[in-house]
Amino acid sequence: MKHLLSAADLTREEAITVLDTAAQLAAAAEQGVGKLPPLRGRTVVNLFFEDSTRTRMSFEAAAKRLSADVINFSAKNSSVSKGESLKDTALTLEAMGADAVVIRHNSSGAPHRLANAGWISGGVINAGDGTHEHPTQALLDAYTLRRHLCADQADLAGVNVTIVGDILHSRVARSNVLLLHILGAKVKLVAPPTLLPIGVETWGCEISYDLDDSIAGSDAVMMLRVQKERMNQSYFPNAHEYSFRYGLTKARMNKMAQHAIVMHPGPMNRGMEISADVADSARSVVVEQVANGVSVRMAVLYLILGGAES
Ligand code: CP
Q1: How far apart are CA 76 and CA 86, in angstroms?
Q2: Residues sharing a CB contact under 8 Å with residue 37, sequence separation 6 or more, in sequence order
Q3: Which domains occur in the chain, in start order?
Q4: Using one digit for the tens of pLDDT, what is the confidence trace for 251-298?
């Protein structure tokens, strides 16, 4: 694996290797092993053109736990604000000897451009590009699902995942649908018709406009943030109406199967797509998703930077 640009880059076997490697790294951390040495002398650059809390911090923690040197780049405090291009930013990183670049960008396709233009020689990891993809979020979600629902199998065959909300603007949904299918899960999408993308019927998912009809048969309900910052028109009447139809409330959660879990990639709009009591409930694995993100991103960095061979 040279780059990770899309969840679709992974075969079933490669995805399972990432999840298994993450499990081994998590086990080492649980046994009190602090820093591991495999990326000593390597440089990882976190190149963030768009805001992030979880992804950026967990990539930084992951790289440091593997003993890599980390350079954090935020477009807001850089020469990008003076008009510097992605190409010149990339050439600067190359001059500094970046072995891997973790990029988040508001333009869909920016990580592909960075990986394929020949500006840098290191690996490129997509940490979220526009409304396109967020493959490491899908991997940490798959890891979390496997831990809770299929402890005795390698993949997610037979697992029913319902993804709810703003599918239209969600890179998390796109990457999750791709990876969940690669790993054998069944995916149902629930959203108002206005928040489903054109062509969604080709994604291989069951589609519903009714959350109440979809809750009981799910092993996991993944709520998505309503991405107001990407909305340039009115997609639903108001926040109250959205919550009434598509919010995960305690009453709805109580209709879920006993074993089923509640997921959210974060950041959450509490009171909008998920109520506070659901977010903080015993069924919510939201905080665990963040913790698993560190292990999964360690695995991705380790595999991309050749740790497995060394
Ligand atoms: N889930 C996720 O990508 O969160 P951040 O935007 O905080 O990185």
Answers
A1: 14
A2: 66, 67
A3: 7-133+290-304 (3.40.50.1370), 135-285 (3.40.50.1370)
A4: 999 999 999 999 999 999 999 999 999 999 999 999 999 999 999 999
Q: Which atom of ligand 1 is nearest to the CA of 51?
A: 6
| Separation of CA 134 and ligand 1 centre (Å) | 9
Tell me the two tokens of residue 299: 């695995």
Cβ–ligand 1 distance for 267 under 6 Å, the answer yes
- pLDDT tens per residue across span 121-153: 999 999 999 999 999 999 999 999 999 999 889
What residues contact residue 168 under an 8 Å CB cut-off, 6+ apart? 131, 191, 194, 195, 196, 197, 235
Catalytic residue IDs = 54-55, 82, 104, 134
Ligand 1 binding pocket includes 197 (Cβ within 6 Å)? no
* Ligand 1 atom nearest residue 128's Cα: 3
